[in-house]
Amino acid sequence: MAWRQMISLNRASLQTLSNSLSGFARFSSKSNPYAVKVGIPEFLNGVGKGVETHVEKLESEIGDFQTLLVTRTFKLKKLGLPCRHRKLILKYAHKYRLGLWRPRAEAVKS
């Protein structure tokens, strides 16, 4: 009998704890200006670090953004991209596919 009471108390306390934390996780201190349609130029500009210099080459050879997301490193190497830029593109493409990263919209300067 005592075990049943302890288990039910633990379940009740865990349930209230999870309910209170779920509302807390929705708030963030950073704003998300994601109103931009993502294409190859927006993606590469979001990555930065010199990768945006390859926009014309990737648009002509690869075509659309969805193909870039599944492109392998050997194809990027064939296109003549340096190793550091290939690594950055593949890293951010993986993060984008998982939904962990998106290129930010350009901030409006006043």
TrEMBL record:
Record-annotated Small ribosomal subunit protein mS41 SAM domain positions: 40-99
Pfam families referenced in this protein's UniProt entry, alphabetically: SAM_Ribosomal_mS41
Domain of life according to the entry: Eukaryota
UniProt-recorded name of the protein: Small ribosomal subunit protein mS41 SAM domain-containing protein
Organism: Escallonia herrerae
